[in-house]
Amino acid sequence: MKIAEAGEVIEFKNGLQGRVQKVNKNSVIVDITIMENYKDLDLEPLTVVNHKNYRIVQEA
Protein backbone atom coordinates (compact mmCIF):
# COMPACT_ATOMS: atom_id res chain seq x y z
CA MET A 1 0.00 0.00 0.00
CA LYS A 2 1.44 3.35 -1.08
CA ILE A 3 0.80 6.26 1.29
CA ALA A 4 -0.43 9.40 -0.43
CA GLU A 5 1.59 12.60 -0.35
CA ALA A 6 0.36 16.19 -0.03
CA GLY A 7 -1.08 17.42 -3.33
CA GLU A 8 -2.16 14.01 -4.62
CA VAL A 9 -5.79 13.24 -5.41
CA ILE A 10 -7.29 10.19 -3.72
CA GLU A 11 -10.57 8.31 -4.02
CA PHE A 12 -12.37 6.93 -0.98
CA LYS A 13 -15.78 5.95 0.38
CA ASN A 14 -18.10 5.29 -2.56
CA GLY A 15 -16.27 7.38 -5.14
CA LEU A 16 -15.60 10.58 -3.21
CA GLN A 17 -12.40 12.31 -4.28
CA GLY A 18 -10.20 14.93 -2.69
CA ARG A 19 -6.76 16.50 -2.67
CA VAL A 20 -4.48 15.51 0.22
CA GLN A 21 -3.66 18.52 2.39
CA LYS A 22 -1.69 16.85 5.19
CA VAL A 23 -0.27 13.39 5.82
CA ASN A 24 -0.45 12.03 9.37
CA LYS A 25 0.86 8.77 10.83
CA ASN A 26 -2.35 6.77 10.24
CA SER A 27 -4.41 9.04 8.01
CA VAL A 28 -4.56 11.95 5.59
CA ILE A 29 -6.55 15.17 5.73
CA VAL A 30 -8.36 15.67 2.43
CA ASP A 31 -9.97 18.71 0.79
CA ILE A 32 -13.06 17.45 -1.05
CA THR A 33 -14.07 20.82 -2.53
CA ILE A 34 -12.30 19.82 -5.78
CA MET A 35 -15.28 17.65 -6.74
CA GLU A 36 -17.73 19.23 -9.20
CA ASN A 37 -20.77 18.19 -7.15
CA TYR A 38 -19.29 19.19 -3.77
CA LYS A 39 -22.05 21.71 -2.96
CA ASP A 40 -24.74 19.09 -3.59
CA LEU A 41 -23.19 16.65 -1.10
CA ASP A 42 -23.73 18.75 2.04
CA LEU A 43 -20.39 17.67 3.54
CA GLU A 44 -17.63 19.50 5.39
CA PRO A 45 -14.82 20.73 3.09
CA LEU A 46 -12.11 18.75 4.92
CA THR A 47 -12.24 15.14 6.05
CA VAL A 48 -9.88 12.57 7.56
CA VAL A 49 -9.29 9.28 5.75
CA ASN A 50 -7.33 6.31 7.10
CA HIS A 51 -4.48 5.08 4.89
CA LYS A 52 -6.26 1.72 4.51
CA ASN A 53 -9.38 3.34 3.03
CA TYR A 54 -8.26 5.16 -0.12
CA ARG A 55 -6.49 4.74 -3.41
CA ILE A 56 -4.40 7.34 -5.24
CA VAL A 57 -5.96 8.47 -8.52
CA GLN A 58 -3.61 11.35 -9.42
CA GLU A 59 -0.05 11.63 -8.23
CA ALA A 60 1.50 15.00 -7.40
Task: Annotate the secondary structure layout.
Layout: E1 9-12, E2 16-23, E3 27-31, H1 38-41, E4 46-50, E5 54-58
Antiparallel strand pairs: 1-2, 1-5, 2-3, 3-4
Pfam families: DUF2187
Protein name: DUF2187 family protein
How would you sum up this structure, described in words?
The chain is built from one helix and five strands; from the N terminus they run E-E-E-H-E-E. Helices cover 7% and strands 45% of the residues. The two termini are 17 Å apart. The protein has one domain. The mean pLDDT is 96. It is mainly β and 60 residues long. A hairpin with a 3-residue loop joins strand 2 and strand 3. A five-stranded antiparallel beta sheet has the order 4-3-2-1-5, with no helix packed on it. InterPro entries: DUF2187. This is DUF2187 family protein.
